[in-house]
Design a protein that fits this description.
- This protein is of the alpha+beta class.
- The protein has 17 helices and 22 strands.
- Helix 2 runs parallel beside helix 3, helix 13 runs antiparallel to helix 14 and helix 15 crosses helix 16.
- The chain is elongated.
Amino acid sequence: MEKKFKAVVLIVDDKEANLLALENLLANKDRVILCASTGKEALKIALNKPIDLIILDVKMPEIDGFEVAQILQSNRKTKDIPIIFASAERTEHQFMMQGFEEGAIDYFFKPLDPEVVKAKVNVHLKVQLQKRELIEKNNALQKSALLINNSADIIGIIDATTLKIEEINLAFTTILGYSLEEAKGTTITFFLNNEDRAWFNDLHKQSKEYFSFDTRIYCKDRTIKWLQWKVVVKEKKWYINARDITEIRQVEQISNYLATVVKQSNDAIYIHDNEGKIISWNEGAEKIYGYSEREALKMKIWNIIPQYMQLELEKMVNKILKGKKIALLETKRITKHGKLVDVLFSATVIIDPTNDNKSIAITERDITEQKIADEQIKQLNKDLQNNINELISTNKELESFSYTVSHDLRAPLRALDGYSKIFEEDHMQLLNDEAKTLLKKIQYNAEKMGTLIDDLLAFSKLGRKEVQKRALNTHQIVEHILQEINHSMPYKAMIKIGNLPDCYADESLISQVWMNLISNALKYSKKKEMPEIEIGASDTGDGTTYYIKDNGAGFDMRYAHKLFGVFERLHKVSEFEGTGIGLAIVHRVITKHGGRIGAEGKVNEGAKFYFTLPKIISQEVCPI
């Protein structure tokens, strides 16, 4: 029901008789009549009460009507109050003009004509009250607009036939990212998720006056949000309120997921109240303890606690109820069939926010078999450690043997080499050509034996060397080695170097790898008219694979398994010099770095050697 206003009329006249006459003439149940006998009194009333119309006598002592009107017009609060002047000066035109200049809306002349006065006052009050109602309604509309535009929910109007958005508030922009200009005139189905669009198009055909639903809707950035809609249908318009429930939906999904996980977990997860009554029991608990959910919900936790541990657990429950959390405490439980099992026990208190009741959530996984397995693993580890110790001892003995043999062989070798050179110097003229050839072979084999011993010592030392890894610039290492090789033995091969990622390795050891592999590539391709060598790398996910490819002698892949063995050779010494230690050293270095090594080849068509190192663990690269 609309609010009914009572019009307030202020009559100002210095003659009491005139006041009484006008008051009696204008009084009715829908009006409040106020009277003032002086200009000062009139101003006081007007400034303190809401006035709809003032009937103001022109001639008054102290402050006349024109002066009162001027003061009222100059005040922000009273400037819009309509004024009707009352004057006996019918014939004085200048007074009328002055009154209108002071803001008068009409003029009464004395003696007053009752019918004219009543009619004019009724008209002016009606206009004023309509104006007041409009102001009130406009204020209410402005408040509604503020509430709508400041609402966190989407509020708007949609044409029920076309489903086009006619009006929408700023929440549409805040929630979905579209501007109001993009939204207005667009069908609401444009913003919907594809799965929801079909049934939404059928929704507007229903004749319901009110309905609600949830739907997914695309944001401008193409993310999807959930909106909960409430729709009132009136005169073929949908008056909508849509609330963002994305977070609620996500929480529901997580809760449902967690409930499923708990239900299907192989661990025993159950809840009991502060008196020990079981109020939740999952499949894991049923598997471990043998009680079905129906049976468990009629039990208390003491049914699965060994008798001798119940007092201890009761004390622990009291601590948990006071806020103490228990995590992975090893304890024992008893099954439905009386079997004692080992479990890991975790527990925390749950407080119901509606009534502050406390319950305890418990997780227990059966570790009986795990404990047996742990014992077996301990024994296996012990046996393994014994084997490792034996292996270390054996390796030390082998390294010691290798080192000793290498040193012991040097003495007779040096004697053999020395005596042959003395014999050559003192008796060369007595030897025929065959003897001279035999002597040269003795010296050559002594030199070869020395090289073998040096390589054997190097291989032996490698087993004892501690690997000290750091970040290295691989490209710089390769360039440095090529310069070293070219300085001591200039090569004619065309070498192409691709991208070589940095590595994390022992600098001296990895340099030896590159030295051996590059030297081999140069050695086995030197007989080609145009020897070519390619050095590069590739990412293999778990590491970086480096490779050296040549177009040289190659090898038969049937014998590839021999490549990395000590003193193993796939070519004759007469074809290519060497002792067969180099690739064995390369293999050992890469293995000590936790990497892998391999090779591919084809006779007379070249070979490709590659090794993989774990990826660099630091971005800081130290130049060599």
